[in-house]
Design brief:
This protein is an alpha+beta fold. It is about 20% helix and about 25% strand.
């Protein structure tokens, strides 16, 4: 089974490499030898696809990397692949819930493989309140060793590292040498050389001296030079213990640092320390403080790990909480010698709205809790104690030295209060008064010591001209109004036959001719011989039932063009239309006539017949027996609006309103329908059907139709072919008959001339009206809430009718 899985994996990976190499525009790789593979040439999608296919083939993560190494993938590229897979897992591009990891030793000596999932892991639930925990909670941060930069000179060499020796100059040669388990490299024609345990810099010097003393003597003269670099790096095993989120033993690159391993293990738990992380190497112990990196970005504690290192995360010693108006509230770990100023630095400092004068401290003593008021003077010396709770309050939205000036000053707003400042000083600060300032009196709003509101007044003339000193208090508000604040807004109005009737601000000495000119002058229809000025009565004798309410002044500018009248506030100037001036009136005729369009009403009292005689007759398709007139109503529209719609209707180019739906919609909202028996109007000029027309009437002669419309509570609302001498019930039956919810007794017929005929009922008998061509039959819906109820009145009618019938029967049988 294992051989089958290996064979399947080899096939999957071979195909993966061929496709990836082709897409990367590299030479076709020999898939039997992975020693020259560069993981950087593969995209994230290709890595994820390979990984998921291998897992789906039955391999776990450890088996994947064992097979890769057997096929020649060097440790450096293996480490890169591990880091890439880990990064993809963090981005959730791989299977949900799987985190990259090699084998891990748990307590009790149990081995756990993260992909097999045999032992449940503690979920990583970082506490966002703990300062530094967000570093290990973010998927966008991946602390990986950088494998693309030269190894540092202090890198300690060990077995499985590969050293690249480049000789150039007078002689040229390159050696790729692997350090064996004895810690030696074997240089051809030179022999073994022990380099394990040396730094890369020390090893370089040793190799250079050895080559100069043996086969490359020109190195001493400088004609030949030697460069020693690190090629493929080895893997090391590092153990993480203590309060780590995922403690255990990790197989990682030899370039892995402390911060790399902390990220891999998920960082400290809620009880773990961020300030005293220990690196135990043999009998030596070093400590690292993560706050140096979090606050200052210092890499001082980010030491390079070695084979067998133990990273221990102890419990925190002093953890305190900081809440309120600081930039980063939460829980912080502080050392014994640190003060509140250090805590403030770790939190990012106060926010702009923080009260900085004092901080409230809640501290636990041996027997109880107590509150400490920490003033700003003690921030630098106040020693932190574990479990302290610090609260920074918000600055109150109050000013201790503010005064206001509003109204008629050049720069109104808040100003600084100083002891002894007067109203004159404040006005001077505000740039002085405006020209319209009312100086006889200004108001000052203030609060007394008991917060009782108070209002005072001051004479600004006395303050500004005569030197009266009026001192202001904190938070006083000086209000200086404009003179117009104390005056009515006086106007005069114009109306009637003026080009621009309007309301005009009254001014001293304004005259009739002034306002006529400001209103654009008289229209062509305006009558200058009878201009009326309506004036208010300010002392009317209201006790007299016939008292005068308005004074009327009539002006004849036609006889006396130089006459003028001085107007008073609120005068109303009315210009009427000249007697005998008549606007053209017209109607619109549309529909099935030979000459549709606009027709002028030549004389008063022009009738339907007068206009129909001008249209040239009817089309063959016309229903010449009926006519519909749509006429404007007087409600809801001003005269101007009505005139505007009439002009738009009469000026349309089309012969039908149906082609102008917006205009038709306006017409329908503001008009009524008059249905006329056209045949009667023509045949009988003096009859009631020959109505006089009005300006803006729309006359419509409809198309003749052999259909009857049936709608409402019927099973199949439709158009039914007209059949002479049939009544409403016949057409309802043709439409499927009455529905159960129909109100039969209220059914009606609308004739083409607009007449409405309804069903008549006597006792239990119904009489259905006759139906004409082009009529509409409508069946209303019954009131469902009351349709099964018979009211008192109905019962009374029924009983009365039955009594009459009974008497008739008795009389007949006598």
């Amino acid at each position: 089974m294992t051989q089958f899985l290996r064979a399947g994996f080899s096939l999957i990976f071979s195909l993966f490499l061929i496709i990836s190499a082709t897409s990367a525009q590299t030479n076709l790789l020999n898939v039997n030898d992975l020693s020259d593979i560069n993981i950087d040439n593969f995209s994230d999608e290709e890595i994820a696809s390979f990984y998921q296919k291998a897992i789906a083939g039955g391999l776990n993560e450890s088996q994947i990397f064992v097979l890769l190494q057997q096929r020649g993938l060097n440790p450096t590229e293996t480490e890169k692949l591990k880091m890439r897979i880990r990064g993809l897992a963090g981005k959730k591009n791989l299977q949900a819930g799987r985190e990259f990891r090699d084998t891990l030793t748990l307590s009790g000596g149990k081995r756990y493989d993260s992909l097999l999932g045999k032992v449940p892991m503690r979920p990583i639930i970082p506490n966002p309140l703990i300062f530094g925990s967000e570093l290990f909670a973010s998927n966008s941060l991946v602390f990986e060793p950088n494998l693309r930069i030269p190894a540092p000179p202090n890198y300690i060499l060990g077995p499985d590292d590969e050293i690249v020796i480049s000789v150039y100059g007078y002689s040229e040669k390159k050696y790729d040498l692997k350090i064996n388990e004895l810690g030696e490299i074997y240089i051809p024609n030179v022999g073994p050389l022990l380099v394990s345990g040396l730094t890369l810099e020390q090893a370089s010097e040793k190799i250079r001296n050895k080559l100069a003393a043996t086969i490359y003597t020109a190195i001493r003269s400088g004609q030949t030079k030697v460069q020693v670099t690190l090629g493929k790096i080895r893997s090391i095993r590092v153990t993480v213990i203590g309060q780590a989120t995922k403690p255990g033993t990790y197989t990682v690159s030899s370039l892995t640092t402390l911060y790399n391993i902390l990220y891999l293990c998920g960082g400290p738990t809620e009880l773990g320390s961020y300030r005293n992380i220990e690196i135990i190497r043999g009998n030596e112990k070093k400590t690292a403080d993560l706050y140096e990196f979090l606050v200052e970005g210092s890499q001082k504690g980010n030491v390079l790990l070695q084979e067998g290192d133990v990273v221990r995360i102890p419990y925190y010693e002093n953890q305190v909480s900081l809440t309120g108006n600081v930039k980063r509230p939460g829980k912080f770990e502080l050392k014994h010698n640190e003060t509140f100023n250090d805590l403030l630095k770790y939190s990012g400092g106060f926010t702009d709205s923080a009260y900085r004068g004092a901080v409230t401290v809640e501290r636990i003593t041996d027997s109880l809790r107590k509150i400490i008021d920490l003033p700003a003077s003690g921030f630098a010396t106040f020693r932190i104690k574990g479990s302290d709770k610090y609260t920074v309050t918000k600055l109150q939205d109050e000013f201790g030295n503010r005064i206001y000036v509003t109204g008629a000053v050049q720069r109104p707003g808040p100003y600084e209060w100083t002891k002894g400042i007067t109203a004159k000083d404040l006005i001077t600060k505000a740039g002085g008064l405006t020209v319209d300032a009312y100086t006889q009196k200004a108001l000052i709003y203030r609060y007394e010591e008991n917060m009782q509101p108070e209002m005072k007044s001051v004479n600004l003339d006395s303050v500004l001209r005569f030197g009266q000193k009026f001192q202001l208090q904190k938070n006083d508000s000086l209000v200086i109004n404009s003179i117009f604040f104390y005056r009515d807004k006086s106007t005069v109005s114009t109306s009637g036959e003026l080009r621009v009737p309007k309301e005009i601000l009254w001014r001293d000495h304004i005259t009739l001719k002034d306002v006529l000119f400001a209103s654009g002058g008289l229209t062509e229809a305006g009558d200058s011989s009878n201009i009326e000025i309506s004036r208010r009565i300010r002392n009317a004798n209201v006790e007299d039932p016939d008292h005068t309410e308005s004074a009327v002044i009539r002006v004849n500018l036609s006889q006396n063009p130089y006459q003028d009248v001085t107007l008073q506030p609120y005068d109303l100037v009315i210009v009427r239309k000249r007697p005998g001036y008549v606007d053209q009136r017209a109607v619109l005729v549309e529909g099935e006539i030979l000459r549709p369009g606009r027709y002028t009403l030549e004389k008063s009292g022009t009738t339907i017949r007068d206009i129909i005689m001008k249209v040239g007759g009817f089309k063959a398709s016309a229903d010449s027996a009926s006519l519909t007139i749509r006429r404007f109503t007087n409600t809801g529209l001003s005269q101007e609006e009505r005139s505007n719609i009439i002009q738009r209707i009469l000026n349309i180019n089309s012969d039908s309103l149906d082609k102008n739906p917006l205009l038709k919609k306006e017409l329908l909202k503001s008009s009524v329908i008059i249905n006329v028996n056209l045949k009667s109007a023509i045949d009988n000029p003096s009859g009631s059907d020959n109505l006089p027309l009005e300006d803006g009437d729309v006359l419509t002669v409809a198309r003749s139709s052999n259909l009857v419309s049936v709608s409402g509570e019927v099973y199949n609302p439709t158009l039914v072919a007209f059949k002479p001498n049939q009544n409403l019930k016949y057409y309802v039956q043709q439409a499927g008959n009455f529905m159960p919810g129909a109100r039969k007794s209220k059914s009606f017929v609308i004739s083409p001339n607009g007449n409405i005929k309804s069903v008549k009922q006597f006792l239990f008998f119904r009489s259905y009206p006759k139906v004409e061509q082009r009529s509409e039959v409508f069946v209303p819906q019954a009131d469902r809430s009351n349709r099964n109820r018979i009211g008192t009145t109905e019962w009374a009618v029924i009983v009365s009718a039955l009594s009459i019938v009974a008497n008739v029967i008795v009389n007949l049988t006598k």
